[in-house]
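Folds vary. Our protein:
___
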Amino acid sequence: MLRFYQITDLHYYPARILRSSGREWEKRALYDQRCVAESEAVVDAAFDTIARDKDTEIVLITGDVVCDGELAGHISLAQKLKKLKAAGKRIFLITASHDIRPDPKGYSPEKGEYIVECASKEQLFDIYYDFGLSEAVSIHKETGSYCARLQDGYRLLMLNDDRDGWGSESYGFSSAQIEWAKQCIDDSKAAGDEMLCVCHHPLLSPVKFYRLFSPHEMIDDCDKVAAFLADSGIRFLFTGHTHMQNINYYDSPSGSRLYEINTGCLTAYPSPIRKMTLSGDTLDIKTLHPQNINYDLKCKPYMTYLKEHFDYMLNDIFYSAANDIDRFCELGESFSLKKEQSEKLKLPINLAGKALQKLTFKKAGRLLFVLNKIAPRMYDVRLCDFFVTLVNNVYGGTRNFAPGSAEYDSFMALADKAAGLIPQKDIKLKYREIIRPVLCDILYNANGIDSNNAVINYQV
């Protein structure tokens, strides 16, 4: 039996050490999907939660450990990790693209926003050597990837996928890295050990729209890599980056199955700590959250505070789509929508934004002559507010508006009728084949796996 934790995307910002303050800092802290001002308190609380569990010693930390490459953040986080290690934990950490971003920011009343010292890949190897690399049975020095033995019967393959770091056109693995990984897997099989695998960027799309709109945020050649891992006997892959809670699986052409456990950002909604137990063919996954946050949460429970922070930004994005499209293009990058993409779609985004702000389900139903298909309890729900709920569900791993529910049937009635009014046949076809499945997937996770608390019985 193997017990372990996974946390990812800590995005720890050393505000106290950098003495961040001033108007620009307050603006940054308010308009960021992540809780950058609160990040140290959240990380400390998460580490305390893990440290108090005396039955589980293994901790996987799967990339983007600091906010944007701040060297001061890496040095400070390493000190916190040493304390966690002293509490009896074995930490296996891998870095990712945010950890070597070349232009991290500091903030002060005098300077406003300014550049602070960043970390290099070589520095990260040394800073985090004691948290995984020191236990490695094999290291791919060029990428910072490594393989370690967890306990009798289990090994861990930590694959760094950031290539050239921040600004890379794609993320993934070199041919030499794959050859090294093959050798590690072969060695594990020869020893009779099961290999678990980690990389930062996802192989499987957590929701259909992610692959459609943000393929650059996934592993390059993801299907090919997924097939390689599955056919090599890897059953479980642990990833981050998307900030979404999701559990999905891939079946290779030869019939091998790979499960991907994609975990959300620790310092953004929904602030997950995965606790997992692998016993034979069963992986038991539970999602916890940090407790006792040492920060002024305005007398609110942490999860309420966190969700309100998230919702504030979501509402601002929808408001900007309707009233300040240039601002929308800036804010969209926080949700993996590249600025150049939104720039091309300014007019339809602006028109959709205005409609979403004004229309309720009832008004939209009347306009589209489908009021009879709208559930009465949805009448007074603004479309804008409903979209905020959908985004919350996607990030929180709670896409539970199943077909037959008031939410699903009412929304799809509007979408289908609106698409039917479009005269161009090619756009109607695109709606049926691409857009409609994406919308259905946003509403409801049809794979049958709870993305927060699940028991996976491995079988193909």
